[in-house]
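The following block was generated as part of the benchmark described in Methods. Ligand: NAP.
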Amino acid sequence: MKIHIIGGGNLGSAIAVGLAKNAKGNNITVTRRNIGFIQHLTEYGIVVSQSNTEGISEADLIILAVKPHQVDAVMAEILPHITNKIIASVLSGITLEYLNKKVDGTNTVLRLMPNIAAQFGASATCISARTADLPKANVVTELFNKIGTAVIIDEKLMDAGTVLGACGTAFALRYIRASMQAGIEIGFDAKTALAIAAQTALGATEMLLNQQVHPEQLIDKVTTPQGCTIAGLNEMEHQGFSSSLIKGIKVSLQNIKSE
Ligand SMILES: NC(=O)c1ccc[n+]([C@@H]2O[C@H](COP(=O)([O-])OP(=O)(O)OC[C@H]3O[C@@H](n4cnc5c(N)ncnc54)[C@H](OP(=O)(O)O)[C@@H]3O)[C@@H](O)[C@H]2O)c1
């Protein structure tokens, strides 16, 4: 595939690097105005450019990764140069209806919500499309499954997918930071505490994904009756551990909707 990513910022660059490393054989171009910030992408065989339109007529997939308020200007710039392309937008809050009105049947539009772990082949990516466009969404899903896990969802869940999958990166990191801080309090230096906390979170995730079981089944395996794990876990729950996470995710969703 020839993949043209417009907007080489945090997410656009992360997707480009993830695809270059994990979906080899594709031809990837990334554009942005301040091209100096993305020169390092060339180390991965990615072409960088200041032009959004050069070579775009040969692209199979165009990924829009600018800020939402820049979408109109970018669409006006590229649409005269493209037909029958897949345009995948990662822009929060920009609907399929809005994008479809812009393309007016000339191209297929999809919405994607990846996260920056795409760079390490570990993005949770939500994808939505109109029913008629699902075959093309499947092609993109296959591609994004190479840089993590990609699922097709109903567009009405896209905000929820953003909170769980993209904001969720920050929530997971805050869990690791809290574990690290506790690790320091119980005797480790910061570096060792972080290494143990991060690897433990990764290990738990690997087990969950490999064994495809409910988290509680794995928790049962590490909680000895009257042991220290269940004592710590129950104290966390008394202090509102699960409840605070659930409430935080719901408040995030309320705020995305009021933006
Ligand atoms: N970061 C995340 O975790 C995340 C997750 C999910 C979705 N998103 C969505 O992804 C989009 C990008 O987010 P981000 O965090 O990557 O933002 P960002 O770092 O600000 O990246 C946006 C990039 O677009 C470039 N740009 C602006 N105007 C352009 C133009 N006319 N042509 C080409 N490039 C242009 C900017 O570079 P120049 O100024 O140099 O052109 C900038 O590098 C947003 O719409 C956001 O809703 C982000």
